[in-house]
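Subject — a protein and its fold
Encoding — discrete vocabulary of local shapes:
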Amino acid sequence: MATPDDRRYTEQHEWAQVQGADGAATVVRMGITDHAQDALGDIVFVQLPEVGEEVTVGTPIGEVESTKSVSDVYSPVAGVVSARNDALEATPEIVNADPYGDGWLIEISVTGDVEDPTEGLLDAAAYQAFADAP
């Protein structure tokens, strides 16, 4: 699966995509990358933070459990959880099938004067080079 160039990436294999503005906040949707879901294998459980929970950059916000292992998920931006993909409770395998679409994890509302809160993250080419490195 190609790495979409309409979002930014972390070295922990999360993606972040600006969804637009919600009042004074910028909404960022995030999930795990195709590379991450492939390395994990069949995902059987996803633990997500609650709406209203404050998250900070680089801190664990949940877990993705597969038949192989359990991996922490880290926040790519700082803000407040404004939505979560509750469909993953019943069907966590959506993350395997569509990690960049229906398999999204949460949305984070970011306040402040930052036009693009994902600007400091890796672009698609840089992430692909990182993921492909030995």
User: Anything to note?
Assistant: The radius of gyration is 14 Å. The helical segments are 34-40, 87-90, 94-97, 124-132. The first helix runs from residue 34 to 40. The chain is about 20% helix and 35% strand.
